[in-house]
């Protein structure tokens, strides 16, 4: 095959791999839960973690990252060199297509996740040390703030800086395309940025849910009323509603005479 045909095969493979909705399938097959109808409505690893806990979130994270790893490994096997560019450039391009596939998946109507885990998988294959440092930044940020979205954006932004200072081979392609990837991830979090600014963004663990309970996604992303009464249990709410119904129910005539109302 010609280099251009191989390049097309690598880029297409990256997109199709990224389009496989790993987190969505794990939650649907394992728990019967449609991620698009719980939590934030996002079919990605973060929503799986927030809605179903680590038992679903960790496998979802690993598989979403694995899509990025596999896309880079396929590109590496194809060994395509165009215009005398560094081979890492093509590998990054195929990885970027995996991230695009994850965020605009062919198999979910082009409505996917934010791309953080898949991007981490891409960069892990190319520069594991820098990814390790970015993961450390993520962990520190999410521990300090409990905002996963903020931690994701800061970690993604830190990666190009780490590659600039620590990478020697193929530093130009890595810094350039990782900067593009970080900008894309921040763009995908634009709604989260708005919620962070107005103080309505949900924190990690702030809205625990029953893994087997499917809820509708609110039409207003800033509406956190479902999480605002965390100190009142569902049973207490039902009990209060029952008391309210009983207190407003009409009395029959015999009961009314007995109680002296008539």
Task: Please provide a brief summary of the model.
The chain has 262 residues and is an all-alpha fold. It is built from 13 helices and no strands.
Structure description:
The protein is mainly α and 262 residues long. The chain has 2 domains: 3-198, no CATH class; 232-258, no CATH class. It is 68% helix and 0% strand. The protein has 13 helices and no strands. The chain has helices at residues 3-19, 22-31, 45-52, 54-78, 87-103, 116-126, 128-145, 148-166, 171-188, 190-198, 225-228, 234-248, 253-258. It is globular, with a radius of gyration of 24 Å. Mean pLDDT is 81; it is low at 208-242, 244-249 and 255-262.
The assigned structural class equals mainly alpha
Number of strands: 0
Question: What do the pLDDT scores average to?
Answer: 81
- Tell me about the biggest sheet? none
Question: How much helical structure, as a percent, in the residues?
Answer: 55-70%
Sum up the overall morphology in one term. Answer: globular
Q: Strand content of the residues, in percent?
A: under 5%
What is the alpha-carbon Rg in Å? 24 Å
Count of folded domains: 2
How many helix segments? Answer: 13
Distance between the termini: 95 Å
- In N-to-C order, the SSE pattern is HHHHHHHHHHHHH
Question: Regions with pLDDT < 50 over 5+ consecutive residues?
Answer: 208-242, 244-249, 255-262
